Amino acid sequence: MAEPHHERGIIDTSVVIDLEHIDPDSLPSELAISVVTLAELAAGPHATGDVTERARRQDRLQRAETTFDPLPLDGGAARAYGRVYAAVRSTGRQARGRRAFDLLIAASAVAADLPLYTRNPDDFAGLGGLLDVIAV
User: Fold this and answer.
1) Coil, strand or helix: which one is 74?
2) How far apart are CA 66 and CA 64, in angstroms?
């Protein structure tokens, strides 16, 4: 069964990284990102010692900065994060550390009432009642 097509949606960091390799028909017409994705992309060039990879990551960051006006982490996203955190914890999964970035992205999607497109749907397990997670 095919996923429903949405006009708008949030893409997570994994989708931004692979965007040039993803069939545009599998994504919504209007793409958004969370400011958390922009933060992860900003850290990327500093997380590698490989000069070529650092340049590639810097280029990706600059393209994202010029392409997207990221959704902020505001009061609505903070409240949504509480619901996202509770949903994940109720499944017995960890909701802190590196995982917190994914959950903040999910909270941005919940607050904006938008589906979340990801290459890593398992990162968002347990959130089906709060948000549409679409694997691409």
Assistant:
1) coil
2) 5
| pLDDT of the residue at 1 | 41
Which residue's entry shows tokens 């949504």?
80
The size of the chain, in residues, is 136
Residue 26 tokens read as 């599998």
The encoded tokens of residue 135 equal 């694997």
**CA distance from start to end of the chain:** 14
Contact present, 83 and 1 (Cβ < 8 Å): no
- In this predicted model, what pLDDT tens digit does every residue of 76-122 receive, in sequence order? 999 999 999 999 988 888 777 777 899 999 999 999 999 999 999 99
Query: How confident is the model over 61-72, as a mean pLDDT?
Result: 95
The enclosing H or E element of 21 equals none
Q: Which long-range contacts (CB under 8 A, 24 or more apart) does 123-127 make?
A: 123/12, 123/99, 125/88, 125/91, 125/93, 126/87, 126/88, 126/90, 126/91, 126/93, 127/84, 127/87, 127/88
Global pTM reads: 0.91
